[in-house]
Design brief:
By secondary structure, the chain is mainly alpha-helical. It has two domains: about 30 residues; about 70 residues, no CATH class. It is about 75% helix and about 5% strand. The protein is built from five helices and two strands; from the N terminus they run αααββαα. Strands 1-2 form a two-stranded antiparallel sheet. α4 packs antiparallel against α5. The protein is extended and about 50 Å long.
Length: about 110
């Protein structure tokens, strides 16, 4: 792939990304989403995030494991509990990183 092909690909991906995001803004209030779909989409970000993060939390040294020796899983559980109790995203991130760092340093 030549340099010009790379730049054309980057430009094309940029145009597609901007257009796909901007269409919702350009449509404004002319387009309405039915209530049933809005309710379903309310939980979609959390499900997508869980689908991305859970596989990483459930692996330890390349193997699937659910045990107290899995530092990432323990930090994830602590972070989740922090968020459920406080509803603070920054606190959740801080608790998760502190627990993960402490478990790695102590283990």
């Amino acid at each position: 792939m030549s340099a010009i092909d790379t730049w054309i690909a980057i430009l094309g991906m940029t145009v597609v990304t901007v257009l796909s995001r901007a269409l919702f803004l350009m449509a404004g209030e002319r387009v309405t989403v039915p209530d049933r779909i809005q309710r379903a989409l309310r939980y979609a970000p959390a499900a997508a995030l869980a689908a991305i993060i859970l596989p990483d939390l459930l692996t330890f040294e390349g193997h699937f494991t659910i045990s107290p020796t899995n530092d990432k899983l323990m930090a994830g559980i602590a972070a989740t509990l922090c968020y459920v109790l406080t509803r603070r995203m920054v606190g959740m991130i801080a608790v998760g990183m502190i627990v993960y760092t402490a478990l790695r340093l102590l283990g």
